[in-house]
């Protein structure tokens, strides 16, 4: 089994996860007419980025017995990163005095699932058709 280069295996999935979370925050802030402030954007963004990072660490630890860490996989890495992004993100929002209304938790869960798992699903389909 050939292990893909580091860029394909780790760097690109990291970039796609960060981009997905940035898009989620940008859409949310825009829909609430809060899109003008860079500091406000970063204030909304950091809890979810930390949550995703925690998810990456958990996913890497959970798959340490495999030949190579596959962060672009839907299962288990994608699901772990998604759940961690939402759970840790919400906990950090509470700790930092940001809102966590039930409807926001639901919307955030669905939106981040679509974005974080969606790109992984597309990548899987593309890799199947090109191999």
TrEMBL record:
Record's protein name: Membrane protein
InterPro entries named in the record: DUF3054 (IPR021414)
UniProt keyword annotation of Amino-acid biosynthesis present: no
TM annotation in the entry: 10-28, 40-62, 74-95, 101-119
Entry keyword set: Membrane, Transmembrane, Transmembrane helix
Lineage: Bacteria, Bacillati, Actinomycetota, Actinomycetes, Mycobacteriales
Domain of life per record: Bacteria
């Amino acid at each position: 089994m050939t292990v893909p280069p580091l860029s394909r295996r780790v760097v690109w999935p990291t970039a796609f996860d960060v981009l997905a979370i940035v898009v989620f925050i940008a859409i949310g802030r825009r829909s609430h007419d809060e899109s003008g402030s860079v500091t406000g954007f970063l204030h909304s963004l950091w809890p979810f980025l930390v949550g995703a990072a925690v998810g990456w660490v958990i996913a890497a630890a959970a798959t340490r017995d495999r030949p190579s860490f596959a962060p672009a996989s839907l299962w288990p890495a994608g699901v772990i990163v998604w759940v961690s992004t939402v759970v840790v993100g919400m906990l950090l929002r509470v700790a930092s005095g940001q809102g966590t209304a039930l409807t926001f938790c639901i919307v955030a869960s669905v939106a981040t699932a679509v974005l974080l798992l969606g790109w992984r699903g597309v990548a899987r389909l593309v890799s199947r058709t090109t191999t």
